Amino acid sequence: MTNRKKQRGKQRSEATNKTKRVAERRRPLLVEQTHGGALLSGGVPGNRGGTGRPPSAIRLMLRGSLEQRIEILEAIIDNATSKDADRIRALDLLAKYGLGRSFELSGPDAGPVEVDVEEVRERLMQRIARIAARNRID
Questions:
Q1: pLDDT in tens, the chain (138 residues)
Q2: Contact status, residue 41 vs residue 29, Cβ threshold 8 Å
Q3: Angle at 116 between CA 111 and CA 121, to 5 degrees
Q4: How far is CA 6 from CA 1, 14, 39, 57, in A?
Q5: Are the C-beta atoms of residues 82 and 89 closer than 8 Å to each other?
Q6: CA distances from 105 to 35, 79, 82, 101, 109 (A)
Q7: What is the residue extent of each domain of the chain?
Q8: d(Cα 69, Cα 98) in Å, to the nearest integer?
Q9: Where are the alpha helices (DSSP H) in 38-81?
Q10: Shortest CA distance to 97 belongs to which of 107, 89, 106, 109?
Q11: What is the DSSP letter of 109?
Q12: 95-124 core/surface letters (b: 16 or more CB in 10 A; e: else)
């Protein structure tokens, strides 16, 4: 091995050792716990902790924000100079949140679905009996 290669290897190992020393200095002390484990004092570096804002609060804020922006979406749709893709996207967004996504069942000839309560009750009782028989312990 040449002298030059030895110098490079030494420089790399010194840099690695320095990085390790800096990391060790930044790491908080371990605090032993009664269950035998240990926690870092002050928590994990870089993690501020906490769960953040509850999703319901975020949804509430976004609903208010969206409500204020409806006029913008309507302006995009009504503007003849807007790109067709932008108009379609704005219309799609208004439709999704204005109409919602509903699923509807219908019977024959798009009429109401007829349900025989006695038939449903009988089928339910049969299913319960099968489950009970399967799980019976002798």
A1: 566 666 666 666 666 666 666 556 666 677 888 888 887 777 666 666 777 777 787 788 877 787 788 899 999 999 999 999 999 999 998 888 777 777 777 778 878 888 899 999 999 999 999 998 888 776
A2: yes
A3: 145
A4: 7, 12, 41, 61
A5: no
A6: 56, 37, 38, 13, 12
A7: 3-40, 68-103
A8: 13
A9: 55-78
A10: 89
A11: G
A12: eeeeeeeeeeeeeeeeeeeeeeeeeeeeee
Overall residue count recorded for the chain in this entry: 138
3-class secondary structure, 26: helix
Tokens of 118: 């006695």
Return d(Cα 115, Cα 128) in angstroms, integer: 20
The single residue listed with the structure tokens 């309507």 is 74
Mention every residue, 6+ apart, whose C-beta is less than 8 A from residue 28.
40, 41, 42, 43, 45
Q: CA separation (Å) from 28 to 4, 44, 45, 60?
A: 39, 8, 8, 38
**Token output for 103:** 């699923």
